[in-house]
Amino acid sequence: MSVEKTERDKKLEAEKSTFLELLEASFENYTPPERGEIRNATILLIDPKGDIIVDLGAKQDGIVPAQDTERLDPDYRAKLTVGAEVPVYIMNPRDNDGNLIVSINQGLQQYDWEAAKALLDSEDVVEVTVTGHNRGGVLVRWRRLEGFIPTSHLVTVGVGGHDRRDSLNTLNNRVLGVKVIEVDQERRRLIFSEREAQKEWRQQQKARLLSELMEGDVVTGTVTGLRDFGAFVNLGGADGLIHVSELAWHRVDHPRDVLKIGDEIEVYVLSLDRETNRIALSRKRLLPDPWSDAMNRYHEGQQVEGTVTNVVDFGAFIALDDGLEGLLHLSEMGDGTLKEPHSYVKKGDRLQLRISRLEPDKRRVGFTQRWGAELGPRTEEEGSPAEVEAVGQEASAPQSEAQQAAPTDMAEQPVSDEPASETPEGQAE
After folding, report:
1. Burial of 145 by CB count in 10 Å (0-12 exposed, 13-18 middle, 19+ buried)?
2. Record: fold of 213-287+405-422
3. 142 pairs with which residues across the strands?
């Protein structure tokens, strides 16, 4: 018995020695996990409470706390199954209970850091969402990473003067096109520039809009700039133009008379030029045409009130509140003895008038202030045929091709970098 026991003990000792040698060999190149390290791991168990146990090739399994999985995108979290491979970030190699605590959420961020470094080299334009702001600029989110756009690299709104805080507040939840200009993963520093990306971003957005929009569409946009020839409206990253003749049914001397920068309005897509990347818009096509039922609402001799929209040598153009516009001829002003209208009325004046002529089929209406006179056929004193024709053409004629044509660079006009509060009238913001 003693001989057999001795032989068995020797065999066990040999097997134990072999096992230890194999175990030591398996950990010969073993490096213990360190805080901040990223490792690939395999899911071993998903606890009903939300904790996940993973094998990351360490001497002990890692624990992903439920609080970490709750930060994951719901779609990604739903795809987590036993056997799936995930990147994990070493949060704590050994906590108070001796556990190895890891994070899938921060492990996934590693992929985003690598993508950010690639964008720094490629200079491609990406979208970020504004989440807040501080004294130096705005905070943004890109994928799973938090980033920053310095004030000097913002162009969407003005950020100077007393309105700086309000201007930055308007950016919350806005999507901006940016370029990556600095990546420092160790310091978790990711800096973007909207200024660097502006030109490419606008070109990309305009190309996207042109591929999605159809003539006749009604869309919502924000007024971003005013020029003598019209108003620029941002439709979601790119601007379209409302020509001054398409702002209202009545004559508009300057876009600032009916719009202001920052207004959110509905517009009608008039035309799309995909070769020149231009979008022509209309505001008046969405407003009731005042001439369509003018005969039902007005009659010759009716007393009305209107606003002076323009003063010319032979009289003044008057717009009624519904947009119907016509001429108050010089001979019909006051007592009819005035020599010139400029000293009598000015743009913006509200006047009490009577309708002297109403011709909806020609889209013409004439006004008078000669209350004591009986209305009758128009005399030569009331306006020459040329002047009457000018009324019809200026006040309500359909937009001609020449009117629709804007300066060659109008659709590509960049938004000014100057703060909104400092932008002179007539300049795009």
Report:
1. middle
2. OB fold (Dihydrolipoamide Acetyltransferase, E2P) (2.40.50)
3. 145
For the chain, the maximum distance between any two Cα atoms, rounded to a whole number of angstroms, is 145
Please say whether the beta carbons of 221 and 280 come within 8 A: no
Superfamily of domain 123-199: Nucleic acid-binding proteins (2.40.50.140)
Ordered DSSP codes for 344-374: T--TT-EEEEEEEEEEGGGTEEEEE--TTSP
Do the domains at 38-109 and 294-396 have one common CATH topology? yes
Which pLDDT tens digits describe the chain residue by residue (429 residues)? 455 557 776 666 666 666 555 555 555 555 777 787 888 888 888 888 888 898 888 788 889 898 888 888 788 888 888 988 888 888 888 888 888 888 888 888 888 888 899 999 888 889 999 998 888 889 999 988 899 999 889 887 644 444 566 667 778 888 888 999 999 988 889 999 998 888 777 777 777 788 888 888 999 999 988 998 999 998 876 789 999 989 988 778 889 888 988 889 999 999 888 777 788 999 988 888 877 778 888 888 889 988 888 899 999 998 887 778 889 999 888 877 888 899 889 888 898 899 888 888 888 889 998 865 444 444 444 444 434 444 444 444 444 343 444 443 444 443 333 333 333 333 333
Instruction: For the full predicted model, state whether its pTM sits above 0.70.
Output: no
Question: Checking DSSP bridges between strand 62-64 and strand 100-103, what pairing results, if any?
Answer: parallel
Domain ranges of the chain: 38-109, 123-199, 213-287+405-422, 294-396
Residue 159 three-state SS: coil
